[in-house]
Amino acid sequence: MPITEFLERNAEKFPDKVALVELNPEIREKRVTWKEYELIEPTADVPYRREITWSVFNEKANRFANLLISRGVKKGDKVGILLMNCLEWLPIYFGILKTGALAVPLNFRYTADEIKYCVELAEVDILVFGPTFIGRVEEIVDDISKNRLLFYVGEGCPTFAEHYDILTANSSSVSPDIKLSDDDFAAIYFSSGTTGFPKAILHKHRSLVHSAKVEQKHHGQTEDDVFLCIPPLYHTGAKMHWFGSLISGGKAVILKGVKPKFILEAVSSEHCTIVWLLVPWAQDLLDAVDRGDIDLSQYQLDQWRLMHIGAQPVPPSLIARWKKLFPNHQYDTNYGLSESIGPGCVHLGVENIHKVGAIGKAGYGWEVKIVDERGETVKRGEVGELCVKGPGVMTCYYRDPKATAETLRDGWLFTGDMAQEDEDGFIFLVDRKKDVIISGGENLYPVQIEDFLRAHPAIKDVAVIGLPDKRLGEIAAAIISVKDGMTCTEEDINEFCHKLPRYKRPHKIIFADVPRNPTGKIEKPVLRKIYCGESVVAKQNNS
Asked: Are 214 and 70 in a shared domain?
């Protein structure tokens, strides 16, 4: 069945139950304190909190679907979404799907040129965008508006677009009579771009439905669970974790802002039971508690049952710290790619916290294998490329048969991630295939070095990349971000690294910020562009 049927079922089964809440604590902070907010009229300025029920959610999706149909949208057309997280995001997404068209979410960090590139690559017919993107869209409007409609969501609609709120208010709230099946195309997502320009990833409804089943199977969501959604909805990670709420009929809270106190206030006030964090956010929360900036006793947190992390390798030291602070929390991690419709193709499981550091075993409905350069399965303990197979694998890279043939082979998705399996069958990520450093004939896996360095008490974040070297070919360089209020020197790091085998020790230490994309992945191409071929002087840093 298509993913839209879950929404229609919830609207019928839970019509008056809250489906989505949007919290905007940054707006609240600018205007009033937490206690004073109750004295402000809900309509004043931008409201701190908005919500919709399942029936309203479905009605809004229907209205947008009928608007699109009235403008000639049909099965197989594409509608782009360029919005920051907001209450309108998911109803727009489902409105697109209800027409039989494909939803095409776009990264909110894209430049004007990247927006143009992705819109043209995916052959987008209509672009829906919000206030943050007026300037970027205006730069390319003469190019992209020739054969496309532009709909605007928010206040202050520019003259080159039509207003979503006005148009949908006058559209029918009845579900359009469009027949959909598992085999209909549903969405085009874009790769994160950490290894180059983004590719367009084509998925069917079958993939989306499977991701919903995987999430619910792994984390046991019920209609009583409340999911706190912080990462960007354009990415499969946030969306597919939310699908666990969709399939169970549970409430989800869309939080705009990642400060530790914002997260804890949201968990407390909305009674959240499940929170998906990225490594930097979890790190910031722990550091805020350690510094005394956060007093956990001021929040209602007893109902919080599960903290899980995905999108990147998780340092075991981080989870050890977390369990000391939150001993009753279940912990889980998922591995996935947009090509495998997000998280869950490999899954640790809450019962396997003794294996923290591993990404786990094959997820519900998935198969995995680790292969060598010839595509043959390696022996347990050997490093090879991780491959996955299951109902959530993409159809193809849209309009890119060469890349598709390289990545999809006999139904297997070759992930580009290097991994190894331990004696108990648990899979550990070693690194991205393209990030492996070959130094003096030895393969160095940056993730292993990064995990080691994160145990240093002064290190907030770290990335390891290869720099060109005449003698060794490449050397490992560690870019280190130091915790606020602490100091660290190159000598400190070198002494700490004496516990590493000599060939794994970083040859260069650089104190600087570690750039990450919105899904928490380290942007190593950015770091290589900055540091490769340049003479970099390591500096002390106490920021």
From this structure: yes
Pair 209, 126 in one domain: yes
- Classify residue 288: in a domain, yes or no: no
> What CATH number is associated with residue 468?
3.30.300.30
How many CB atoms are closer than 10 A to CB 468?
11
For the chain, how far is it from start to end, CA to CA, in angstroms? 53
Do 73 and 160 lie in one domain? The reply is: yes
pLDDT of amino acid 540 = 32
Distance between CA atoms of residues 347 and 370, nearest Å: 15
Same domain, 391 and 343: yes
Instruction: Find the domain containing 489 and state its range.
Output: 442-531
SS3 185: strand
Picking from 286, 251, 283, the residue whose alpha carbon sits closest to that of residue 269 is 251
- DSSP letter for 24, please: -
Cβ neighbors of 351 (< 8 A, separation 6 or more) are none
- Are residues 485 and 346 part of one domain? no
* Residue at 268 is within a domain: no
Question: Cα(259)–Cα(230) distance, rounded to whole angstroms?
Answer: 11
- Mean pLDDT of each 10-residue bin along the chain, 543 residues long: 97 98 82 38 61 98 98 97 97 98 93 92 97 96 92 95 96 96 97 69 97 95 97 90 96 95 96 91 91 96 93 78 95 92 91 92 97 95 95 97 96 93 93 77 80 91 88 86 92 92 89 84 85 47 34
> Domain for residue 285, yes or no?
no
Q: How far is 193 from 114, CA to CA, in rounded Å? A: 11
Nearest Cα to Cα of residue 203 among 108, 89, 336? 336
What is the residue whose two structure tokens read 């705009």? 256
Helix axes 205-219, 236-248, angle to 10 degrees: 70
Specify the pLDDT at position 12.
98
Which token pair is 180?
Answer: 């959909």
DSSP letter string, 261-328: HHHHHHHHHHT--EEEE-HHHHHHHHHHHHHTS--GGGS--TT--EEEE-SS---HHHHHHHHHH-TT
In a domain? residue 297: no
Domain match, 33 and 62 both? yes
As given in the structure block, the two tokens for residue 238 are: 């946030």
Please return the burial class of 461, using the count of CB atoms within 10 Å of its CB with bins 0-12, 13-18 and 19+. Answer: buried
Backbone phi, psi, residue 52, to 5°: -140, 150
Last residue of a domain, which of 369, 402, 432? 432
pTM: 0.83
Pair (408, 451) in one structural domain: no
Pick from 191, 201, 182: nearest CA to 394: 201
Q: Are residues 97 and 244 in the same domain?
A: yes
Q: Identity (one letter) of the amino acid at 538?
A: A
Give the chain's domain count. Answer: 3
